[in-house]
Amino acid sequence: MTVIDLEQKARGLWSNQKRLLLLIIIIIGLLIIIGTGLYTIDPEEVGVIQRFGRYTHTTEPGLRFKIPFGVDRVTKVKVKYVYKEEFGFRTLEVGSAATRYSQRDYSDESLMLTGDLNIADVEWIIQYQINDPLKYLFNVRDVTGTLRNLSESSMRQVVGDHSVDEVIVLNRQEVAYETRMILQQLLDDYETGLEIRTVNLQNVTPPLPVQPAFNEVNAALQEEERIVNEARQKYNQIIPEARGKARQVVEQAEGYAVNRVNRATGEANRFTDVWREYNRARTVTRRRLYLETMEEILQNLDKVYIVDEDQSGILPLLNLEQRGE
Amino acid sequence: MKNIILIILAIILLIVIVNSLYIIDETEQVIITQFGEPIGEARTNAGLKLKIPFIQQVHRFEKRILQWDGEQNQIPTQDKKFIWVDTFARWRIVEPLLFYQTVRSETFAQSRLDDIIDGITRDIITLNQLIEIVRDTDRDMAFAIEIDFETDYYEEIKTPIMVGRRAIADSIFATAHPLIEQFGIELIDVQIKRVNYIEDVRKEVYERMSSERKQIADRYRSSGQGRAAEILGRMDRDLKQIESEAYRTAQEIMGRADAEATTTYAAAYNRDPDFFEFIRTMDAYRNTINDKNRLIITTDSDFYKFLKKGD
Question: ipTM score here?
């Protein structure tokens, strides 16, 4: 082996190493570009792409590629997600068994004047979606803050046109509906890119200090029902009984009538029968009837005094008898 | 050696290039100053832009709609009711150069808006009655009870609405708008967020609400008693009707029976009144004379006449 051979071999080795190094550098470079350029868009999102700050296009869910090194910037916007804002209360934690709410007082949000210059404590929620990601990103700064403020002013405007009774009981649906309409109009006017899905009144109550008085109304309502029910009960107890008695009286009268008519008919028939017989032998029959009657009576009498027809004054006789006893 | 110079040159070139390029975001607008002197119009189109490196400077301003949220202010209304009023407004930088020259930053702009809008809000609220600020339309409200017509309260809540909440907010806006233009700001709207009574008034209102509810409760109770009395009254009436009808029917039935009996008796007895008298008298003797009676009878009676004479 000559020196030249060795030199040639070394040169060849060197150039091989150089090529390999170059390849590695290129591969690493590509990996960096791909690694920083790839991004995923989740199914509920879209990606808004800005090249050097300028909006170029919007990408749909999937694995996507962008130019790295700050040339292309992706902002992911959850267009399918339904966002929720709470007013007058805050949910701390949604548990499987029970939802926990914040104990803090949000009455500055929930206390509002009603149209009859009373005060109502209104808690409500708003659910909304981002329906135009470009407007959402580029038109209004702090969209959520704007939404919260607009929601409060809309709700108060509507509640301000309703009486406290309407807000608490009578017209809850209408209040929620009108608020939604007004709020959506404002959001459209300022091109926030938001769409309201629901405005829902939650707890709507009188303010704490007047709640006892409101409860008293409920108690009075129940009392009213109770008093009326008691009266009805009494009615339902006494009237049917009276009807029963009335029927009894009528039945008794019917009984009397049947009895009376039958007796009369019987007696009349008996008389007629006797009279017919009597007609055949008037004198004898009359006498017989007389004697039979007398016989019967005299048997039953306590005492019978038979006096001569010429005897005048029978008192002495009676006295005599009493003295003897 | 040559290589090192080349590398240094390349780095310098890169710095120059980087410094002569700038990015405007979709949410921004910029003005370019040269030694503090503004150059050209404000640039509002987003994208990659060129400038003279080092000499020219970029000032960025927000292009989006911004929010101004005022503090709560205690303001008396025209009818001397003290209320807390909380307003908010939306605004936008429309002339960045003017904005840069007059207020420089958003923080200063916010404080200018505080001064202007708070003052105007105070002026306009003071000119209006409370009911005008609370209500928006003349909508007819429904109540759980009728309100006493004679009270001031009724007068107040039945006052026809001449302006209304939104119009008041609009007039605050209309007054403030021209005053704010001078800062390169466009005021977009002013909204009344919250209106609340001050503590003292709130207590009075709570008392009124409580007494109103007590009235409703009383009304329910007396209505209950009224309805109960009505039912009991009807019960009395029905009771009397039922009893008297029964009595009448009974009497009529018995009357008819008596009449029929009388007719029957009369028809039979009329055949021989004399015999009837006789036989009925016999019956009467039987029925009336019993073992407690004593009879004194003379021998000339038909029954005993034979005691004295046999024929």
Answer: 0.74
